[in-house]
Specification:
The protein has 249 residues and is mainly α. 79% of the residues lie in helices and 0% in strands. The chain contains 10 helices and no strands. The longest helix is centred in the N-terminal third of the chain and has 25 residues. It is globular and about 40 Å long. The two termini are 30 Å apart.
Length: 249
Amino acid sequence: MSTLILALAAGAVVGLALGALGGGGSVLAVPALIYLLGFTPAAATTAALVIVTATSLTALYAHARTGNVRWKAGALFAAAGLLPAAAAGAAAARLPQTLLTSAFAAVAALAAVRMLRPGRSGGGPTTTVRPAKAAGAGAGLGALTGLLGVGGGFLAVPALAGVLAFEMQAAVGTSLLVISANSVASLATRGATTAGIDWALVGPFAGAAILAAWDGKRLAAKVTGTLLRRVFAVVLLAVAAFMLLDALT
């Protein structure tokens, strides 16, 4: 019963992060699955993709209802990342567990540093999509998703806001479309690894995350984005330090 409670609590935190920030859920889901619920790194990255896919689709619907999704740019990002996500997902099963954990910790630390840095203005909102930049960023995010089981929202949001000059709400909403597509592509190559997943824990985890995503969407409207990013960044730094120390000892 205590394990189930942990799964529900972790799912709620993941859902809040995805709903409020448009990313970061999987960066918390993977270590929660490993250290709280006892999953192996390989099984955790696959389970995280299942959880993040379901939660991202829910949050995407919520943001789409308020017009915060730029479908053209999101589709371009997603299309560019599909093949890299599938290829990296197939390669991940053949990599050492310690390497996956260390790489994940490094990505979590990078995400935290990016969130703590002052945001740069992209020059105001725009509806113009820059295909080369969008495709390049999308391919990189897809590879990251496939390899480490992260949706890439913590990188997609800065890319959409900075490179394509989207306003923050549109960047958050559109990133959820990218996360969903990349996660589905990566899951398509991980069928064999789903055998080791404890669905009795993943189900409640995903359910709690889906419900919390709606609360995250409402939270984003009440709390400043800067405060949300800073709190989340501090949590990420602590998670990254713990995972790296565990991988090296």
